[in-house]
């Protein structure tokens, strides 16, 4: 029998995993952090760096009889600021160790430099795909204004893909599932069939596979959506009964959700193919054709979406990239 979201949260709580819903200033709303009552006492993600988030984190921990000072381990699921902004404060107050994917540790430690490099990467990508310079300048300004919600993170327990974290009463396996971000890591409790998935899977919205700089430092643009679909297919094979997400409600039928998401990506891919078959278009022109003005106000998000589906078409050899010296366009083969 499939559990309801409420039953899933109750079952997770009985297993010592409590959902803490921490406010963010972003459109996605509250972020789900998870308190694992075990040895070590563990917090999975922290919420953004704000006084309101800190107050709520303290009060929600207190509801379970704990304080920030009690935390012994912080697990960081991925590099986005709504998930890691309070890590430094929690560590300063508690002396907790910090576990995260080892190949992301340098990026996490150099938050400001990494954010600046990520912005340069995004601007170059937008310009190469036909987005006007004034739009990129405005988006870069917005991105810089968001940085205060983040923080650098010093990883003291670097994790390898597949590594197991031992607790007194459980084992959690860290599994790299890139796509939504390059550093996405899910944590699998095989005994209890519970997967702490952060933003890898979210019930009510698709996890945006944003195009980001590769963690290995390579110059080649990653195929974020291609990678994300591969990650989802791997997660689909897991015998999870409860998937605890980074936003919204738990997922109790991840196979059906993943099948639905992949089908939606396939439909979006075909819609984009029809537009390209009509005439060659840049990524920006494709985004405008689908979303109108949203392609301006959310230029990088919509461009990542378009390029992701164009990558699928290029890999199928139905579309090719052409470059005229100014911008990349896509044309049907």
Mean pLDDT: 95
Q: Give Rg in angstroms.
A: 20 Å
Q: Structural class of the secondary elements?
A: alpha/beta
Number of strands: 14
Structure overview:
- The chain is α/β, with parallel strands linked by helices and 333 residues long.
- The chain is built from twelve helices and 14 strands.
- 42% of the residues lie in helices and 18% in strands.
- It has a six-stranded mixed sheet with strand order 1-2-3-4-5-6.
- It is globular.
- The model has no long low-confidence stretch (mean pLDDT 95).
Features:
single chain, 333 residues, alpha/beta, 6-stranded mixed beta sheet, 5-stranded mixed beta sheet
List the helices and strands and how they pair.
Elements (H helix, E strand, L loop, with lengths): L4 H10 L2 E6 L8 E6 L5 E3 L6 H13 L9 E3 L5 H4 L2 H8 L2 E5 L3 H5 L1 H18 L4 H14 L10 E3 L4 E3 L4 E6 L8 E5 L4 E5 L25 H13 L5 E4 L8 H25 L2 E2 H9 L2 H4 L1 H17 L3 E5 L4 E5 L1
């Amino acid at each position: 029998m499939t559990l309801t979201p409420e039953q899933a949260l109750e079952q997770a709580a009985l297993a010592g995993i409590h959902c803490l819903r921490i406010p963010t200033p972003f459109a996605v709303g509250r972020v789900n952090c998870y308190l694992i009552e075990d040895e070590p006492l563990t917090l999975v993600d922290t919420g953004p760096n704000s006084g309101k988030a800190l107050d709520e984190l303290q009060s929600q921990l207190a509801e379970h009889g704990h304080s920030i000072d009690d935390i012994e381990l912080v697990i960081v699921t991925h590099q986005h600021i709504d998930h890691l902004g309070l890590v430094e404060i929690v560590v300063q107050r508690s002396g907790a160790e910090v576990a995260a994917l080892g190949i992301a540790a340098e990026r996490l430690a150099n938050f400001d430099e990494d954010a600046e490099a990520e912005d340069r990467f995004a601007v170059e990508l937008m310009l190469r795909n036909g987005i006007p310079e004034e739009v990129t300048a405005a988006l870069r300004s917005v991105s810089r204004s968001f940085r205060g919600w983040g923080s650098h993170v010093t990883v003291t327990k670097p994790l390898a893909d597949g590594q197991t974290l031992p607790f007194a009463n459980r084992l959690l396996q860290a599994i790299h599932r890139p796509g939504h971000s390059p550093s996405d890591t899910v944590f699998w409790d095989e005994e209890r069939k519970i997967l702490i998935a952060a933003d890898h899977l979210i019930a009510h919205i698709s996890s945006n596979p944003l195009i980001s700089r590769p963690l290995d430092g390579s110059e080649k643009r990653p195929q974020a959506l291609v990678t994300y679909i591969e990650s989802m297919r791997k997660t689909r094979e897991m015998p999870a009964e409860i998937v605890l997400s980074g936003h919204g409600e738990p997922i109790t039928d991840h196979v059906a959700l993943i099948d639905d998401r992949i089908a939606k990506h396939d439909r979006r891919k075909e819609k984009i193919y029809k537009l390209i078959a009509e005439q060659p278009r840049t990524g920006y022109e494709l985004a405008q054709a689908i979303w109108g003005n949203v392609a301006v106000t959310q230029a990088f998000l919509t461009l990542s979406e378009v390029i992701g589906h164009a990558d699928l078409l290029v890999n199928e050899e139905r579309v090719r990239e052409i470059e005229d010296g100014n911008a990349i366009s896509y044309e049907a083969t």
